[in-house]
């Protein structure tokens, strides 16, 4: 497969996301991680911070690059020569929403969505849980890349 995209909010990127990027890299020649710019939803990290944290976390993956996008994912795919969307499925609870998005994106594109089954080590993991646990001082150091753990500690003055 040629170029694929891993889209998301990544506020912040977790080890679960990194696992999906690696697996996408194994089945394609190029992976673009596309960070959604969503002005209506203020996140913990700015989009610029999220991009920087992902870049620092994928340094050892030469075929992975990081961009931002605004608007429809299918337009980003068309503009960037992307062949397919790759997403992780953590559990059955992800399936309904992911299937709906995949079908809409195929209808709009058409563009295929491929799902990789999340490593069970990370199936309970989400960015929102990482923010919550970290805010209350919990140890998330084995669940996120090192630059993210450091950035979270700084955000929460830990
Ligand atoms: O990490 P998230 O928040 O689950 O990622 C969701 C994302 C960014 C993949 C999705 O919201 C998206 O693709 N947004 C762009 C707008 C769009 O194309 N909407 C129609 C999707 S069917």
Account of the 3D structure:
By secondary structure, the protein is α/β, with parallel strands linked by helices. It has one domain: HUPs (Rossmann fold), CATH 3.40.50.620. The termini are far apart. The protein has a 5-stranded parallel β-sheet, with helices on both faces. It contains 6 helices and 5 strands. The structure holds 4'-phosphopantetheine. 4'-phosphopantetheine binds next to strand 1 and helix 4.
Count of helices? 6
Number of separate domains: 1
Q: Per DSSP, what share of the residues sits in E-state strands of 2 or more residues?
A: 15-25%
The H-level CATH homologous superfamily, spelled out, is: HUPs
Radius of gyration, in Å, reads: 15 Å
- CATH fold assignment: Rossmann fold
**Major sheet summary line:** 5 strands, parallel
Q: pLDDT below 50 for ≥5 consecutive residues: which ranges?
A: none
Summarize the structure.
The protein has helices spanning 15-26, 47-57, 73-79, 92-108, 127-135, 146-155, and strands spanning 3-8, 30-36, 64-69, 84-89, 112-117. With 158 residues, it is α/β, with parallel strands linked by helices. The longest helix is centred in the middle third of the chain and has 17 residues, at 92-108.
